[in-house]
Amino acid sequence: MRFIKSRKPLVDSTSARELAQENLSAQLQDNIDILSKFLERCSDAVIKEFAFGTPSVKAALYFFDGLADRKEIELNILKSLMLELPPELSEQSGEPEFLKIVMHRLLPGADVKAISTFDELVHHISSGDTVLLIDGSRGGLAVSTRSWETRSIDTPENETTIFGPKEGFNETLRMNTALLRRRLKSTNFKIEGLVLGKITKTDVVLCYMDHIAPPKLVKEVQERLAKIDIDGILDTGYIAELVTDEKHSIFTQTLHTEKPDSVCGHLLEGRIAILVDGSPMALILPISFPQYMISPEDYYTNYVAASLFRILRYLAFFIALLLPSLYVAIITYHQEMLPTSLILTIAATRQGVPFPAFVEALILETTFELLREAGLRLPRSVGPAVSIVGALIIGDAAVRAGLVSTPMVVVVAATGIASFVMPSYNAGIITRIARFGFLIAAGFLGFLGIMVALVLMLVRMASLSSFGQPYLTPVAPFDSTQITDLLVRRPWFAMTKRPFLEGMENQVRQKSHQDGEAKE
Amino acid sequence: MKRVMLFLLICSVFLSSGCDTVEINAAAVPLGLAMDYQNGQSTVIVQLAQTTSPSSGGSSNEPKFQVLSAQGGSIAEAARKIMLELPRLPLWSQAGVLVVGEDLANTDLALLADFLARNRNVRKNIPVFVTIGAKPQQVFQTQAPLEDYSARALSGILEAQRYQLGYYEPVELNEFLQKLASPGVEPVLPQVRLVEEDGKKMITLDGLAVFHGRKMVGSLNENQSRGYRWLRSGIIQGGLIVIPSPLSADRHITLELLRSQATVVPDVQGNHVTVHIKIKAEGNFYESDDPNEILTLDGLHQVEENGEEAIKAQITDSVQEAHRLHSDIFGWGQNLAASHPQEWKSLEGNWEQIFPMIQPDIQVEFNIRRTYLTYKTFPLKE
Amino acid sequence: MGKISDFQMYCILSLLVGPVAVLETPRVMAHQLQNNSWIGVLAAFIPGILIIAMFSYIIKKSQSPFPLILEEHLGKYLGKALGFVYIFFFLLVASFTVRWFVDFIETNVLPQTPISIFIGVLLFLGFYSLRTGMQSFVRVAEIIIIVDLAFTLIIAFMGIGEFPRFENLLPLTTIHMKPFGLGLFSASYILGKMQPVLTFSSYSLNRERIFKIMLWVVATYVVLITLTTLATILSLGSLSGTVLVFSTFSMVRLLRIGTFIQNIDIVFIGIWIMAIFGATTLPWFMSCYCTQQMFHLKDYRFLAAPTAIIIGIFSIVLSKNILELIIMETDIIPLLYSLFFLGIPFILFLICLFKRAPEQTQTTVPQDEPA
């Protein structure tokens, strides 16, 4: 959809698609003819025709340059066929079982698969494998030679932590699953693979812990994934939007993370992770809103400190959401709430400011969002310069010129800082958007407007659910057993049970601490 | 449908926003509000803060406030008539003190009571004062030491002396209104007076105004005010008592009050009412200019007794003045209604006559706890 | 509508009973009983238990949710007719609550804004949550109750703590039978507002515990109102019963925390708007639900829009001025409420007494939505 928009559809798309479903022929030349049609104008496709053995057998190798490791092809395929072929085997070249013999005895590569259709062939070579076609044998062999340049495993840029593991996912799916498998050494840890995207044929995996994740949930996710019919999946974000319950909402119902340890933590609580090849982001579901306030780090530090930080984050959430609107409401509607000395200060600084407080707040908030967006897009080298100009010079000059008042700058700055406290970027986006709604409500009816908007937001949030889990659990519906691990971080020795998910079978996390002591 | 509703809502935001909004730029901040009755008309006086931007500064000897006043047929009209001179909207609820002019207090409190109770912009938790020998305008015009605004100085003085000196307790508007409405109790208010010091006018607190019914009928002087304070309900804290030394009558001993509580139990026999007052107070030995050693166990006991006497004298003084004014400022009527509801019913009608006949039975218990840094009198050389 | 958990049931019932009462009952009680009004509220615990016992007995002896109960016990025609009356009665309850709260806002904070804006805003909230479905409302109700309960308790304790003039409570002994009876009535009839429990119990997760939950609601109500009444008497003395329109609120206006947090009246109103939203939406929902059941409709949500208009218009024409509203509040509403919330359930109760208990089969709940 994205790449082939509104142009004429592929001229012979139907025939090409039919051909792709066809089996590979036994005649090498036929295969080469068809494939050269497929691969025409693909400058990175490499076709190596060669012959081996005595009497010589014609063969062809297909791979994409850059995806496959040439050294390995030379060493493991070409060398072993052309130079090290035992003479007694080359005599069997006409036999129908020859391909199997080649596969089992001649190719030293660890991962060799027999393929039979053009479709498979194309899929394999575009995944970095090398396909060997031998004249006289029906089908071909896909030898795994995947090796392309990737980013190395790095600390996640957007989720920095002090304590705990610092590895982050990168763009290669297999490396990512390896990072997970290394942490969860259990056969119950399932990584179900599937291919999504009609053109991109992206590998997508569904990770969950068998016997912990509710089977109903797993089935639901599988069904929703199977329903996806899109030409391409380039990032987990595509999937997030395609599978969630309520799509028209700023309240995202999934969690993105780059940290394998965080994913494992969620898997152990029975949630499901979806990883997509080519994306360093894992998608975790189902998620409830309060979980956006939880940082994986909470579970690595002292629980008292972590609990305090968590409370701080809730505070930051409300500051980021409500502070500008509260300021506007108090300044324009409820001045009696201000202590006299404060109102005198504010009145003094607001002398000569031409805009009403509401407009002033809108302007400053928009400016702040502009600066923030600019900061994201800016090249590294000019970033600091622009932020200095933006934050310091413009801000200071605007105050001096009497365009905005200092308290408003303080409010917007505090809001900005508070919005960076949230560990999840999703929550940050939600607050950034909702903040403007609250601002308008405050300009409309003051504090009452804010409360009305808050109720509206609550009703909206309460109506959402993430894969059957209400979006505000455990606050509403209230769950006293889970709420303790939400406002504060429950110490590990007290976490004997996993948070409950609908349909969960096995909630026991560890023997109760006291039970253990009593036995000893 | 949802979208239509949302659209309507957004429209209404932009159409109707602005009701009840006051931009701070277009507002004035009143610090003190005063009501008076001048030239046969209700008068409202307001002290407004001069809000200048900090960059332009403003020289220090220039007053930072403006005093405006207006007259009208009613308090509300007078207050709104200030708008004829003021280009800004006053945020009335910021006013931190209420000053009642002496003339109004002497005329009729009905002029302002309903206004004060009904108006949502007048906060009910601000202290109330009565001017004495001055007009509220003059009080607001006076520059107070260290404080930019005399209205704030008023409440500052009241709070500071309350714990340090212990003469006057603040009376909040809510309490004042309640006492105006309730039978068996009359309100008092601290009085503000202007004094001249070094050719400069200063505001000072002086005595309590005593009300009866709808009028101010007189005032308690400083000593009587202190007597009244002992009888207030609840725990009072802070204050000083200076008493003669038990060893030599011309020397003084100063005691500091920590806390004191009064229990008032009325007793009725037929038409005869007695009130049993019991004061339990404790304090510290604060100062002595008597060179003789007073700090012995016996001496201390004598000091306590002198203290009790002094307190008793203050109370008696204030009761006598209240009797003279026929005003039950102590709320003995209320006490009687609480403990003897049946008898109160019959007495309520002519309480005004009964009250001056009540002879209180006063018992004071004063305990000295500590003597601060020295436990003996300072040993001056002869 | 899905299943309702115990805590959610508690929240719904508290929202029906509490919000208006906290603002209104202290004044009405002080009007009847002056300084002893808190005793009257405390005493309301006993009629409260009788009321909830009546409700839970009706629930035990009936098979269908509320509007159908009428047909079950009173016969088809009388039941149907009463059902229709109830549709309008619930609309009246909703509009009265809206109007009353809007007048409250107008009186205290924003007198210049036309009441139609507030009515519109409140109705939009209710409309939106009815359209979204009762399930999300019930969840929001939990948050509202947690926030408002905590806030009200803080306010009440602050009020008591800041004005410890306990002499205002004296004398204790001047209670006469007539004002005491009237006061007790004004404090207890409000508990009849729990009547929609006859509907909600059908959706409860465990019906057996409904009495216990109602008991909790009564206890909360009594404690909360006693505390607020105490706070108003302590802080306002005799004024609270004589002249003040909203005595609870006048008490809130007196509070201050330190020297910097003062005049928090608007915060109080803001927090209270959440509770009032609950108190309006629930009778509104009941009206829609009754309509749905009476006409055997598939869904009640589409009724949200027409009923919103009815409530809006009705609440505007309800009274011309605040004095009419207060008279309505003290004289008409108690009678009307006690007739529909207590009188008719009492007739049902009497009929139930002489009826055999229904066979121990699963109660038939009309399925409007899957759980």
Question: In terms of topology, how is this protein built?
Answer:
The complex is a heterotrimer of chains A (520), B (382) and C (371).
Chain A: H1 13-21, H2 28-38, E1 45-52, E2 57-64, H3 70-82, H4 87-90, H5 98-106, E3 112-115, H6 118-126, E4 130-134, E5 140-143, H7 173-183, E6 189-196, E7 202-209, H8 215-227, H9 236-243, E8 255-257, H10 260-268, E9 272-276, E10 282-285, H11 303-332, H12 340-350, H13 357-377, H14 383-400, H15 406-419, H16 425-463, E11 465-466, E12 469-470, H17 480-487, H18 513-519
Antiparallel strand pairs in A: 1-2, 2-4, 3-5, 4-5, 6-7, 7-9, 8-10, 9-10, 11-12
Chain B: H1 2-16, E1 17-20, E2 27-38, E3 41-49, E4 65-72, H2 75-81, E5 89-90, E6 97-100, H3 102-107, H4 110-118, E7 128-131, H5 136-141, H6 150-164, H7 173-181, E8 188-197, E9 200-212, E10 215-220, H8 222-230, E11 235-237, E12 240-244, E13 252-269, E14 272-288, H9 297-325, H10 332-339, H11 341-347, H12 351-354, E15 359-368
Parallel strand pairs in B: 2-5, 2-6, 6-7, 7-8, 14-15
Antiparallel strand pairs in B: 2-3, 3-4, 8-9, 9-10, 11-13, 12-13, 13-14
Helix pairs in contact in B: 8-9, 10-11
Chain C: H1 6-33, H2 37-43, H3 45-61, H4 66-74, H5 76-108, H6 115-132, H7 134-162, H8 177-188, H9 197-200, H10 210-236, H11 239-242, H12 247-254, E1 256-257, E2 261-262, H13 265-295, H14 304-317, H15 322-353
Antiparallel strand pairs in C: 1-2
Helix pairs in contact in C: 1-2, 1-7, 1-8, 1-10, 1-13, 2-8, 2-10, 3-10, 3-15, 4-5, 5-6, 5-13, 5-14, 5-15, 6-7, 6-13, 6-14, 7-10, 7-13, 10-12
